[in-house]
Amino acid sequence: MSGTIRLTAAQAMMRWLSVQMTEEGERFIEAVWAIFGHGNVAGIGEALHGIGDALPTLRGQNEQTMAHAAIAWTKTRKRRRAMAVTSSIGPGATNMVTAAALAHVNRLPLLLIPGDVFANRRPDPVLQQIEDFGDGTVSANDCFRPVSRYFDRISRPEHLLTALPRAMQVMTDPANCGPVTLAFCQDVQAEAYDWPEAFFAPKVWRIRRPEPDAAELAEVVALIRKAERPVIVSGGGVIYSGAEATLLDFARHHRIPVVETQAGKGAIDWREELNLGSPGVTGTDAGNAACARADLIIGVGTRFQDFTTGSWTAFANPARRLVSINLTGYDAAKHGAVPLVADARVALERIGAALGAHRFAEPDAAPRADWFALADKAMAAPNHDGLPSDAQVIGAVQRVAGENTVVMCAAGTMPGALQVLWRASPGGYHMEYGYSCMGYEVAGALGIAMARPEAEVICMVGDGSYMMANSELATAVMLKVPFTVVLTDNRGYGCINRLQQECGGEEFNNMYASSNVVEEPQIDFVAHAASMGAHAEKVSDIAALEAAIRAARGRDIPSVVVIDTEALTGAGIGGGWWDVAVPQTGQGDKLGAARERYETWMQKQQLVN
């Protein structure tokens, strides 16, 4: 019979987390990001100090961006490992709600440990406590409930005996993977308890690979055999499954073209002849043409988000059928799809074995070649003295990129322009577009560079997103984590400004020039980044941008390269329709014309098979 060990609840939590292992023999929770306040400094802070390098503590500048760095780290590690983030109660905790939502949408594991109010309620109301006049059990941390895959409040030490294993089960479950919130009452953190020694025995967590149901598999195989022009939509689930090579072999063997979502881009090398680029709103001409003709759409590890489907106008063949291979039944059954609930790699192997030598006609290579010729023109260096477009900035980065370059982004113009233009080597693309969270970029670049120190990480960010959240530059300097930030300054929210006008609106409140300001700000981004210790410079043209990116490769701190850009063009090529509701009534002929176009497109939506 095992004995017991007396520890505080916080000490027990950290000791337990330090021995939760992967099949590869690594700690599942790599580290704990922490900003301390009165709600976690005494209990959790003491426990983290005591555990030391067995569960390292990292210090950031903002609770939300620390969590963003943790999310980018686990996304880069293909969900096989994760990080934890702890905060005090009140604003420290609610700062993390946005990050929890981001992890939830993207199906990424993240352990959030916000401090909470006193379980004993003796000093209520404590500093920063939110009081619900009708429910004494509510605290600010209840905001995490809708954006957590698992939520628990630790109001007694022994709650950890069940809460911690449940948390790990969720984070390692490929079908239910997502953020976990363990709201930790601050007095309970400090309470001692006699813990069973067996609770701290190392445990290996295996990430399962569910096999497909035989009937579902047979139906999908029959649909593929019957099809004439199938297309595969490769999503993030392909990468998380480690199914990149399997998908490529499957597509080649059966001669089925592939298009890639934002999360799935980089699973297959851009040079592969069957890779037609992206579909939908930010789709390539070749990808969207293939999707429009296809009589069978085979989704692999995708949620069929509206950008992928062109708000359900991209798959235009009225006779088309939809197959969805997904670990989650909820996603697999969307929009009347024929579901195949299984791990992506296993599913492709089983389908391939059943299809045998079945092959489709050789796809026409011309649309792909035509697309690359068009993209080359869009990305070429400008031959005029005006400001470059975002596409021309992407072209500059592309020309100097190597096989180990990872380009990343999250919001604004760049995500769409990168999806349609960037030529990704395997593993060379990281986009947070499930939540498209402004402010993810700098923190995300830090997380990627920590997860892949051998890679060259290039963060593409506009001035709007940079202004939202940039403080983890200082953390990268402190940790000596190098990456390159290409900051495009178009003096406002250029992407939404274009959308506003496309929807019939007038230019308003997006660019500084059309906002209610007394004077337009002249922000010195170079001085700002340099003040946090980063190398920073402003370049005047595309050639200087290329040289600055090359020079950054020799540094052990982040480099910020600022370049002014024009705000009107965006990617300039490719694309499809996006359902953004246009007002039915309002002022001006432009709005009326936009509404008329909107109603025309609505008639083209095919929402159910």
UniProtKB/TrEMBL annotation:
Residues 217-350 form the Thiamine pyrophosphate enzyme central domain. Keywords: Hydrolase, Thiamine pyrophosphate, Transferase. It is an enzyme of class 3 (hydrolase). CDD domains: TPP_PYR_POX_like. The keyword Hydrolase applies. Residues 412-563 form the Thiamine pyrophosphate enzyme TPP-binding domain. One of its GO terms (biological process) is isoleucine biosynthetic process. GO terms for cellular component: acetolactate synthase complex. GO terms for molecular function: acetolactate synthase activity; flavin adenine dinucleotide binding; hydrolase activity, acting on acid carbon-carbon bonds, in ketonic substances; magnesium ion binding; thiamine pyrophosphate binding. Residues 57-129 form the Thiamine pyrophosphate enzyme N-terminal TPP-binding domain. Its EC number is 3.7.1.-. Belongs to the TPP enzyme family. This is 3D-(3,5/4)-trihydroxycyclohexane-1,2-dione hydrolase. It comes from Paracoccus denitrificans (strain Pd 1222). The lineage of its organism: Bacteria, Pseudomonadati, Pseudomonadota, Alphaproteobacteria, Rhodobacterales.
